[in-house]
């Protein structure tokens, strides 16, 4: 009796440094559930390649010649495909984290930690979850509390108190299991609350919850220019 193998994650690497792309490709090729289906050096090439190969995850640098990573992320997300964008960059979270999330990115990995965190981050965003460091969730939590204290609800009035809690914790980057432990709920119940609130708000993917939180004022976006290529 044969069993089907798990679906492999198709990955597109986008960085203007060929040596870095080569190193990432070698690292990811060791993983049994990952395939690098392409590598390009500009945002324009990334957009064209995504249309062609439709990867599950794009690993995107921010600073590139021509179209930068933020604009490339916006345009890839706007295609409406099942492609998630994971930012891999040396820039500080404080400068670009919320701009990345507002553009539709599903996570943020530091290049200095790529050998430790990139594989886990790719698997996380491929499940339509958001990958963030604890320091990043603190930034989001600070913005969430600021908006709460200011009474900036807007469309949030449609949600129950428990649904708002699940929305806030999801926007901060917590998984269903982590949210369940915080709220004393099972992960399945958390997923049910998330499904209901997404229906109410007309959202399709978990990563869109972060964007909604930004747009509704739950999280405050920071203005960030496109980084200059090194």
Stated plainly, the CATH topology of the largest domain is called Rossmann fold
Q: Please state roughly what percent of the residues sit in beta strands, choosing from under 5%, 5-15%, 15-25%, 25-35%, 35-45% or over 45%.
A: 5-15%
Strand order of the largest sheet: 2-1-3-4-5
> Count of DSSP helices?
10
Helix/strand-derived category reads alpha/beta
How far apart, in Å, are the first and last alpha carbons? Answer: 54 Å
Q: Please write the CATH class name of the largest domain.
A: Alpha Beta
CATH homologous superfamily (4th level) name of the largest domain:
Response regulator
- Give the total of beta strands: 5
Average pLDDT works out at: 80
Q: Outline the low-pLDDT stretches.
A: 144-153, 220-225
**Biggest β-sheet: count, sense, barrel?**
5 strands, parallel
Q: Rough shape? A: globular
Looking at how many chains there are and whether they match, the oligomeric state comes to single chain
For the record, the CATH architecture of the largest domain stands as 3-Layer(aba) Sandwich
Radius of gyration computed on alpha carbons: 18 Å
